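so i finally got all the pieces together for this one. its three components total, 865 residues if u count the protein bits. some of the lines might not be protein, just check the labels. i wanna see the whole assembly predicted at once instead of chain by chain like last time, that was a mess tbh
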Amino acid sequence: MQMQTTTRSLAARHLRAYYGKHLAIDGVNLEFPPQSVTALMGPSGCGKTTLLRCLNRIHELIPGARVEGSVLLDGEDVYDSDIRPIELRQRVGMVFQRPNPFPTLSIMGNATAGLSQHTRKDERRAIGESVLRKTGLWDQVKDRLDRPADMLSGGQQQRLCIARALAVQPEVLLMDEPTSALDPIATLSIEELMSALAADYTIVVVTHNMQQAARVSQHAAFMLNDETGVGRLVEFDETAKIFKNPKDRRTEDYITGRFG
Amino acid sequence: MILSLRKRAERAHRNDRVFLGIVYGSAGTFVLLILALLVQLILGSWQSIRTFGFAFLWTSQWNPVTSQFGALPLIFGTVVSSFIAILLAGIVGILAAAFLSDFAPREIARPLSFIIELLAAVPSVVYGLWGLFVLAPLMRVAIGPFLQHVLGWSPLFSGPIYGVGLLTAGIILALMILPTVTAISRDVIAAIPQDLREASMALGATKWETMRRVVLPAAKTGIFGALILALGRAVGETIAATMVIGNRPEIAASLFAPSYTLASVIANEFTEATTDVYLSALLELGLLLFIVSFIINALARLMMWTVFRGR
Amino acid sequence: MNVTTLAMPERTAPHKTSIHIRRLSSAFGVFITGLCASAAALAMLIILFYVAVQGSQALNVGFFTHLPRPVGIDGGGVANGIVGSAITVGIATLIATPVGVLIGIFLALFARGALAESVRFLADVLSGIPSIAIGLFAYALLVAPLHHFSAISAAFAFAVLMMPIIIRTSESAIASVPRTIREGALALGLSSYRATMHVIIPAARPAIITGVLLGIARITGETAPLLFTAFGSEFWELNPKNPMAELALQVFNYAISPYDSWHRQAWGGALILIVAVFALNLIARAILLPRRQR
């Protein structure tokens, strides 16, 4: 699954998001480096999840929610071009905070849920096996592929959701606090998976856990609410630099635990 | 690969537009359906409306032979039988609801509630059957004479006892709307916050005093909504009413007298309606039923909305 | 307290009695309410008892398999009514279920604000309209223009009666599917159609089926609209374009007839109706219960 590095890019420009009348984030300009993991950090309510959900146009599904500004995927603005949300979401996949396998589909059914309906059965199973292997689930589930997915543990379900997202062959993988509902062992294994996937995908992960951000990401963005409660991007840099030498005072306060 | 993805997404998007069209179309068809219902009733009643005008509502002659159609006896029968039903079902139902919600332990409340709710499932024709062959004879032989013995001084309980009549219809209707009153009242009462009860008990009030002075007044609006909803059912009930009310379009003082309701006259005479104006008059009754039940339902809904909104 | 005891000793005595009276009246109040609840339940059991006892006397194999026979001749049955009712209810279900579920989808997933509220309001209004008025509607739409009665017109009336129940339960079922499932499906790049029909609806299916069963229970035994739509028949009829025998109508006609033997048949038919309705209700509850415990 080798991809061209130069043209697969994701960026946010002057991004602004509303919940009804309430402005949640404003003035976000951010370029997500391809083939690496970018962490979005910040205290709760700072808008990092909102930003994430703007990237694949899930934010606007909430009644009254809207977005201004642009998100560029390979140079095309996903809000203002020929790109339909359906296409966007196949190119930018998402993994949610609580694992959400589809309840009426089997494990294999879940893994292949995003594939086109015209996919032949053998091809379907092949892709399913491939992504289940890639997420380290294959050996654990190969004997019960047709069983319901909710029999799996939390960590396994989250892997299944990652596999499901990967089966569609996205360029970008968005992860919204993917380990916050999991136990420490499952958390660690998901983090290992993230690092392994970074070679082939652009990954953006929202995390409230700084140590996780330090472990897993190559770049990090720090967000914070300003005095009026609007979430803004404070600093963005390589992870190592941000943690050793934050440029902004507020970033430093957050990292050293003075708040949040 | 990106190109075929774009084409596939485009096709999926077009399919979605069709899907959304069907979804919105169903909702639109539904709205049109109800409007069509209203329109058909109005169209069908037009001849009668033109012939009799508003006097239709207070003319007491329902005579197919002379083509004189006035709805007053029918309105009378509907109102009185429904009133009796609401009175009986209201008292029994609200008290039962208080018991099921607050006083009864769960092991008793659950099965009792279940049985009472089954009452709602019984088809109307079965109620009518029971009313005709069990209640009506009982009324003629036992209940009626007893009531006449005790309350015969009142014109309400005077006159011959046929068994079928306003009172019998009222009782059957009461049975039919009882589960509605009980179930909704029970839910409304149960929804009253527990701290209200606790505050009352802490002041030394007994269970019954708490119910009477604190809980029921707090549940007033919702219970009233339940009663109005039940009233709507009673007004529209056709088959059970027509089997036990006697089917005589006359206004009488006694509750034992046979009577007629708006719905039962339609049921009985529709297929016999020989002239256009006869048919139109019956359709006008249908229109009346529609309007009345619409108003009743809208009112009930308003009450319920205010009850459950403040939660 | 001690001061008053010393100064006015008689104050304490009436106070104690009043507590007793209050406790007694409370117990009485609880008793009366319990009596009301028991009376209501008892009424149900009495009616059931009568229907069971009287109805079972009419039940024999012939009752289920024979056509109605003229009065005085033994062995008549309601076979055509059972079949006719099944056909009519079946057609009604086929019409009402897809439309009702689609409107449930509309309300739960796509409609916002005033639009959704208006449709819900109308569905509520519809559920309160007397069934005879709906029968009149079916008559005006499908009987009068075609100049003959038919099971189809009855099925139409039944479908209209079922719809509010199916709409309400479908909406509730679909809205109960967790938001994260819907978002997950859309975030995967599934079209609204696939997300709805292949992920959300299957998840809501048990509750939707329950709603359909309750809708069927609602129209089973419904008689008033049949009087001038299906009209009834003495013979076998399988073509829905013709008037058709309906069990509920047969019960009604037998009941108001002057013949004892027909009255017995009415009880028998009533027993079949009650068993059918109760079975549907119990199955509907049984479907939902184990799910909720999950």
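DSSP finds ten helices and ten strands in chain A.
Residues 1-6 of chain A have pLDDT under 50 and may be disordered.
anyway lmk what u think
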